[in-house]
Amino acid sequence: VIDISKLYAQGDVFTFDPGFTSTAACDSTITFIDGEEGVLLHRGYPIDQLASKSHFLEVCFLLLYGHLPTASEVEDFEFRVTRHTMVHEQMTKFYSGFRRDAHPMAIMVGVVGAMSAFYHDSTDISDPWQREVASIRMIAKMPTIAAMAYKYTIGQPFVYPRNDLDYASNFLHMCFSVPAENYEVNPILSRAMDRIFTLHADHEQNASTSTVRLAGSSGANPFACIAAGIACLWGPAHGGANQACLEMLKEIGTVDRIPEYIARAKDKDDPFRLMGFGHRVYKNFDPRAKVMKQSADEVLDLLGIEDNPILQVAKELERQALEDPYFTDKKLFPNVDFYSGIILEAMGFPTAMFTPIFALARTVGWISQWKEMLGDPKQKIGRPRQLYIGETLRDYVDVENR
Ligand code: ACO
């Protein structure tokens, strides 16, 4: 007879912690969150200051290298990223293997995973130079890859990057310009896009980042690790929430239907949840949601989209939920994705593109965490334990006797 309890005596400590709600798998110097106080700091700097004063590539530099860049450092970094915005021409053919009605996240998982087949000169993780090149390549190419996924699904020709544009403007250009027309990037939209990227850049050990670290802990190449992160992000409880949230707000449609949906969210027998509400760590407010709400107001105002019915529904839903003890007792507040979809839709993006945009913004966080992990001598291959609750030892039964 096997004494199963003995198995769990191996090692000094054995904890059973489904969902890792209280287990740290690493130490990190990148991002600090105080969920009770609604604080989010990147390398010590508050997210609201970064979102209002910085721009995305500066935040990328901060996450990757640990300090805000000087003017010459940021210029050099922008140059290095810009040089890598094109994708291998052979990759453009890779897209045509997908169905046109594929979800762009499905395409992203495949194309990013396939990057290791196109850029195998930067897959040797033991070489710091190759790690650096792979990092810059991914930050630079992700907007191109996401925009190409979008163009492919709507049947339009790919638009190549324009390296005279800044990161956010270039992404908008690749998504919305068509060869027959003269597309001018609206600076208001470009600034809003950049802010959305900044607000999603990193968020310490969330599900997708932990996935990237776990994949990387086995020594997998960086492109494979980021593809794993994209796959994890896709779920509606994580990055897929922005798409699910806007679809929910549209389904609600008018403010008079809000009580019906709040009642559904509270009903234990109904699997429905208020999308864009709740967070594993934030139990007071999500500081990113505050900036995002303000940004939604600004963007719609500046675009002259007044009285947007979906924004009205969102604001009223937030108001009613925050007056309801069900939500306040469980500490459920709007998260970053509650308002982001409204901005993205106003920019002209279909809902299916919301999560790819999150993925491209989060890429720098994934890479920073992956690099940090590789540089940490304490890091071992990630290997969670389990609590076995199945059958104990029993004899095999021949098929005629079962
Ligand atoms: N609507 C209604 N009830 C909710 C919601 C919600 N959005 N979120 C949590 N609850 C309830 C649960 O039913 C549970 O109730 P119970 O204690 O009576 O069983 C309680 O609050 C705790 O919920 P958990 O799922 O245990 O909390 P957890 O920390 O595991 O989940 C999560 C956090 C996944 C974000 C959850 O709040 C959720 O599903 N929200 C909706 C999806 C969403 O917006 N995800 C985006 C997260 S942010 C991001 O990834 C960028």
Automatic annotation (TrEMBL):
Q: Which UniProt keywords apply?
A: Acyltransferase, Transferase
Entry's PROSITE patterns? CITRATE_SYNTHASE
Cited InterPro entries:
Citrate_synthase, Citrate_synthase_AS, Citrate_synthase_bac-typ, Citrate_synthase_typ-I
Pfam families the UniProt entry points to: Citrate_synt
A GO MF label = citrate synthase activity
According to UniProt, the reaction catalysed is: oxaloacetate + acetyl-CoA + H2O = citrate + CoA + H(+)
- Family per record: Belongs to the citrate synthase family.
Q: What is this protein called?
A: Citrate synthase
- Organism source for this protein? Maritimibacter dapengensis
Q: What is the lineage of its organism?
A: Bacteria, Pseudomonadati, Pseudomonadota, Alphaproteobacteria, Rhodobacterales
